[in-house]
Every structure is written in C-alpha cells, then in structure tokens.
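Homework help board

Subject: predicted structure for assignment chain

Our instructor gave us this sequence and asked us to write out the predicted structure in token form, then describe one feature. I got the tokens but I'm not sure how to describe them. Can anyone check?
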Amino acid sequence: MITIYDIAKRTGYSPTTVSKVFNNYNDVSVKTRGKILDAAKEMGYLPNSHARTLMTKKSWTIGILFNEPSGVGIRHPFFNGVIDSFKKTAEAEGYDLMFISDNIGGKSSSYVEHCRFRSVDGVIVIMADRKDPGLQELLESGIPCFLLDFESSQAGTICSDNINGSFLAVQYLYELGHRQIAHISGGTDTFAGQQRQLGYEMAMGRLKLKKREEYISGGGGFFSVESGYAAMNRLLDLEQPPTAVLAAGDNLALGAVKAIRSRGLQVPEHISVIGFDDIEAAGLVNPALTTIRQNVQEIGSRAAQMLIHSIETVCAPESVVLPVELVIRDSCRAM
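My token output:
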C-alpha cells in the first residue's frame, strides 16, 4: 500500500509537507501542492479517510439538500448540471457528497439531526422552500450552508442574474418589433420565478409597453413542460393573444411551443418564444429555442468553492450573482 512516506521519497518533500497537502493546509505553495498531487495520482495513492478524519476533526463530507417539487429531481437538466459541476469541484478538494433529508432509516427527523447524525461539514441547499421550518432551523444551527437561487443573510448564496436575463429577452423581442409580449411565469413562490417575472415587468415599464395583467400567465407546476402548455393555452384563449412570449424556463417554453402547434399555429411564424436556462434540449428541438443561458458549470463550481471556503475558514456570508447571456436561435422572428 502506498503511503505518504513513499510520496515524500518520490517528490523529495518531507512527510509533513505531503500530509499538509492531503489535509488542505494553506501554507503549502501551489507548485509544491501540484507536484505532490501529481505524484500521488501516478502512484495510485488513496488517503486513509478514517485517519484523515481523526487528524482534522472533519468528516470530509458535504450534504446536499435538494427539494424539487416537480418530481423530476436531478433528472432536470439544469439541476443535474449544477450538481455534477459541484460534485467535481468538491471531490477535487477531497470531499464526498451525501443527500440530506428529513428522514433517517424510515423515521421522521430534521435536516439538522440528519446532518449531525452523518457529521457533515457543510450543506449545499438547492431549491429551498421558503416555508420549510426545517430550513430555517438548519440555517440557525451553525452548520456552514450555501444556498442556490435564494436570498438569505444567514448563509452564502449564488444565483444567475435572473432580472437582467428577462430584461435582455424582452428587449430583444422589442427590437424585433413586438409590442404585445407575454410572460409565462415560474411563479412568485420561487426565487428564480419571482426575479424573472420582476425582470419582465421592469423591461415592459422601461420600454413603455402597456402592462396587461392577463399577459402574465402563471406556469405553476414548477417550470414543467405541462405547466407551460397550460399557461400558453390560457394566453391563446385571450381576445388579443400576444405576438411573443418569454417563458421563465426552457421546459415552460417547450410546453408553450407544443400548445401553439396544437392550435394549428407555428413558431415563430405566428408567435415568437424565448426560454430561460439553455438546457441541452433547447438547441435540439425544431425550431431551435432562443433562450437566456445560465452558466451551469460556473454555478456549481463556484458554489462548491465558496462552501468549502466557509467550512475551512471563518467568513461572513457572501452573495454572488453570475451574468447571463442571450442565445439567439430560430424561435423568434421580426414583426
């Protein structure tokens, strides 16, 4: 079995320096760290997790709290991408991941109890429910937490610039000559849905377009294709349907396209549609979906880096907003 002494002999560094690298001490240079990690990889070294836990007083485990009410779970391409990126970054820093729930062995418990039972070092919270009392208990527990698409003064947060994303979408439709622009909302009970609707309303006001309450059609059903289909049908039933639609998520937009076609109409010939997220399917459907792209890889990677930083140091909660971009494809046309 390869030991740190073997790696020390190979690299010429002391066993103490090698040990510091594997236990993430910050007093080792990047160059030295790189040489030691490269040698360890070549030699097939695997650190003894039990010994490392005893020495550092850490479990080297991060909990994932993921409450996604649509039932799609991590199969949803956006969350799948975020978690995959988070996982890669966390594992590169020596951490394992574990899903956290309010159930241990079939018995009801709290998130805090589960975290303490498993001795996790920190928690990434994805799709937090504002009304969940267990979440508030977790944030007040002293366990380092990091939140995705959420507002909190008690933990670090990260999100895309949802408001500006919607603004870019409406502005693009306006430049194409559209004036009757509707919004399929993700709902105001989620942070992303609330922010994207706010961006739509701000853009409509800034461009001096008439605000029509009936042009905001609640998607409900948590950003699903089915809810986008239902919301679009409500818009099509209006006496004066919109000429363009901004959907708060790509799945909502795909549902909208399906509804438009079910009425014998075409996208973009009769109605232009823009989505939000840029999931893989957006570029594969016909017509390819114009959308607002979130940097999924950056969200997951930055979330992992910032959570690990809060685990390993004492720092104030930090909030990060990442830029988005308009991806122009084929689902919109000029009037």
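Reply (TA_rk): Your tokens look well-formed. For the description, you could write something like this. The first helix runs from residue 4 to 11. That's the kind of observation they're looking for.
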